[in-house]
Protein: Pectin lyase-like superfamily protein
Organism: Citrus sinensis
Amino acid sequence: MAKSMSLRILLVLIILILFFSSSLAIPVVTYNVISLGAKSDGRSDSTKAFLASWTKACGSTAASTIYVPPGRYLLHNVVFQGQCRNNDITTRAGLWACKRSGNNNCPSGATTLGFSNSNNILINGLTSQNSQMFHVVIDGCHNVKVQGVRVSASGNSPNTDGIHVQLSSDVTILNARIGTGDDCVSVGPGTTNLWIENVACGPGHGISIGSLGKELHEAGVQIVTVKIVRFTGTENGLRIKSWGRPSTGFARNILFQHALMKNVDNPIVIDQNYCPDNKNCPGKSSGVKISDVTYQDIHGASATKIAVKFDCSPKYPCSGINLEDVKLIYKNQPAEASCRNADGSASGFVQPNSCLKL
């Protein structure tokens, strides 16, 4: 009898917990871009509808989802601007595209999707094609998760970075497939606590921290993890780049881990004399301080003889550069390394032989 009573009491307690849990659940409001006037034909300009969906979600106090049904959407420089009343916004997308079907559909400088001064954002399942500039930009944001993104652009299209992050903290990029004419992922000044995992890059310029040091007074980059990444036919693999000029910037506490290179021109590179096209180069010592960078479990084939290149600042040499279990070949032979003003260590099997100063 006592056991039966205990079971009944337990059952009542479970029912009460379920009831109060469901009654306290916060409803999620969904804003469908098609309901707000977007067209999924790849020809009609859907910019206003996308911005309207953000305005509604941003102004709401309820958890909100911006839903983009499968289709092709023509967008012209869509920037989702904070600060928002809402701190729980999910962007769930089928296919977003700035598709070039003529010379005017993607105007110069177009960014497919930008988030500015926004917090607690989830971007899920985005596909972006042929933007003439950055495809996804995260600028001045906190706590952003980007997952399942697909980006494609011509391999000879300049400034078409896949995902660009700057002045942001606690950003996570997962399960992305990116092919562009520029960086697959670029990391700008003021980025802290960035996690990049399971990214396939190619074509493109690789995953790049920088360019840094373009301005004299500039925020640094710190606590960045890049792991389980694959580069195919890219110009670079894992890159840090800064301009050769005075700057207060820095890059530190960086981990590159579990990377596979397939026919990559510069698998591992630090370039502190960055100057695209060798035009208007400052020609000075970079003020950007690069320290505590680890390359761990990096394998594959280089398309050039020098697979590891550390060209650091003579005024502020790179320090704490660590190579652990690196094996890079060139034409089925061990590749070579080149170092200038770089200090660090090597452990495990490292090929090419380390040229770091101990």
